[in-house]
Amino acid sequence: MDPLQVDIRLPRRDFVVDLTISLGRETLALVGPSGSGKTSVLRTIAGLERPATAHVILNGRPLTDTDHRVDVPVESRRIGYVFQDYALFPHLDVRHNIAFGARGAVDDLMDRFRIAHLSAARPSRLSGGERQRVALARALACDPELLLLDEPLSALDAQTRPIVASELAELVRGLDIPVIMVTHDFLEAALLADRVGVMDRGELKQIGTAHELLTHPADGFIASFTGANVLPGTASPDTGTDLTLVVLEDGTRIHSTDRASGPVDVIVYPWEIALDSAPPGGSMLNSVTGTVMSVVSVANRVRVQVGPLIAEITAASAEAMDIRVGRTMTASFKAAGTRVNARTPGGRAVTGPPV
Amino acid sequence: MTHTGGGRAGRALFGIVFGGAAVVVLVFLLLPVVAIFTHVSPADLVGQLGRPEARDAIIVTVRTTLIAQVLILVIGTPAAYLIATRSVRSRAVTVTLIELPLVMPPAVAGIGLLAAFGDLGLLGGAFSALGISIAFTEVAVVMAVAYVASPFYLRQAVAAFEAVDAGLVDAARTLGAGPLRVFGRIVLPLALRGLAAGAALSFARGIGEFGATIMFAGSMQGVTQTLSLAIYRQFDVNFDLALALGGLLIIVSALVLLTTKILPLWTRSKSTSDSRDAISSSI
Questions:
Q1: Which residue of chain A has the CA closest to B165?
Q2: Of A115, A143, A304, B203, which residue has the fewest beta carbons closer than 10 angstroms?
Q3: How far is CA B46 from CA A26, B49, B153, B247, B263, in A?
């Protein structure tokens, strides 16, 4: 049996957080937009929040069982918790923060987390990355049986985040306990976690490896969450080919190798899209001509919005093509580079790609 | 005339009215203080304090104030913490009830204490049966002082505990700390500055207590006559002695005031860390 079993029903003001997970010695990332109930899940597992219905079993020990009035106090749960703002004790130096609940050797831990030289520093003197390492070391010093990380990177600025993220990924991978982290950033989840669960309005929509979510998103919401373009339209078999024709709401015609009919979402990843100044030939290519709405640099790549689509190309080719806001460009992608998902009745309408 | 207000004449008028008001305020508030120290020579003032009436009043005041403040701190601190951690509504109700003695005239507090703890009062019968009589004893002084002074401490302490980041308490709990350890290691140190300010206010109010004490404890030299009561007793008997006692209380009050001003500066320069400032951008 997996070390951690969680089953929670937590009514919120306008939806119910409803979640059942079983976790081995692996890292699970719960992702979803803010307000989707992710932090409540962590707080409930830690015992900081008491829902109407909850069952939490860790290594065979029931921690919360609302049916049998089991509610182990927070301090007796052996669950490490790294808070979003790290919650370091401001009046204690780094060493005393880590030693606060420590069961083992504090010095070894400080060496491993490269914070030994900060031993006597107060938290206010630390950088964001250092604070995060102290918070993580402090949680692990208690020798927890489960580690919870709430938005571990959100308190950092854009420049430090990628560096700290890869450090964190390395530290988390070295742990031999279940880890649950919460984030609103799919790429962060993909980097840090073995499995990713997408939450929306309290509901776990899909759970799987980041690769599974990217290649087989259950619906348009998940696809758009992973960074894909999601284009709603109506599908029918294309006459004369074995492709599917999807007519988008604005009349644009898209061909896909996926089979579907009726109301659908066409899913295209930004890196499947090429940009040109004139429409290219080739019958296998879908193309959308439009005005460049925005150009955003992300590391050595550039995200360009053309009409309803976001394309991601290298910075070098963006410069070579002189892509500027206001220019007319053609975005093209292969029929095989698209996914077509039937839209679930009553599902949320995804009207455009995320920016 | 422009909207910035009237040229040289306007400026002159401003100087006379506003400057004059400031001078009046300062002179009015400080003149009595100066008068106490100039009416009689300092040597005479010190000499007066050696008289038995003065010595008795000092002893009674120090003893009752000390006991009252210790009781306020020891019982008030945990009580304030409990109140601060309740729901917003019950906290508001409780704090309002606590503040009632604050707005109550001291004479009313005195008569109320008599009605509750006096020999003929609400609990007086029970105390009499045990052979205990509280009114007009040193215990009554302590109770009167505690009654009027404790709300100053409680109110400030509740505010200080409320200001402690609940996230730090959560963090301490996930690190295995039970409620006592959370209170001792996290909440108390972080609330200390606010608690000290509350204690200073409560001390200042307590040492000047007059109305409730004279009603509930009387003014018996060496038993219940505190410095404030002795000033009242002496001002038509020995005016110089009354002035000397007044001078002593001014010095004590000034020291308390100075402490409340200096303490925050000192703790701030010692540790800049109690503000959880924004996370810096470098790593």
A1: A87
A2: A143
A3: 78, 5, 32, 10, 29
pLDDT score recorded for residue A337? 86
| Over residues B155-183, mean pLDDT | 96
Total-model pTM: 0.78
Query: How far apart, in whole angstroms, are the C-alpha atoms of residue A342 and residue A171?
Result: 40
Backbone φ/ψ region at B221: left (φ over 0), alpha (ψ -120 to 50), beta:
beta
A73–B178 C-beta distance less than 8 A: yes
Shortest Cα distance from A69 to chain B (angstroms)? 20
Contacts of A157 in chain B (CB under 8 A): 279, 281
Rounded average pLDDT over A197-222: 88
Cα A125 off chain centre by: 30
CA distance B264 to chain A (A): 15
Is B190–A81 a contact, with Cβ atoms under 8 angstroms apart? no
CB distance A142–B176 less than 8 Å?
A: yes
Phi and psi at B13, nearest 5°, equal -60, -45
- The string of pLDDT tens digits covering residues A265-291 is 888 888 889 898 877 766 557 888 889
Query: Is residue A232 scored above 70 in pLDDT?
Result: yes
Residue A166's pLDDT band (boundaries 50, 70, 90)? confident
Residue A284 in contact with residue A238, Cβ under 8 Å? no
Give the integer Cα–Cα distance in Å for A23 and A6.
Answer: 8
Residues B190-212: what's their mean pLDDT?
A: 93
Q: How many angstroms separate the CA of residue A165 from the nearest CA in chain B?
A: 12
Q: Which of B174, B276, B280 sits opposite A128 (nearest CB)?
A: B280
Q: Using pLDDT thresholds of 50, 70 and 90, give the confidence band for residue B1.
A: very low
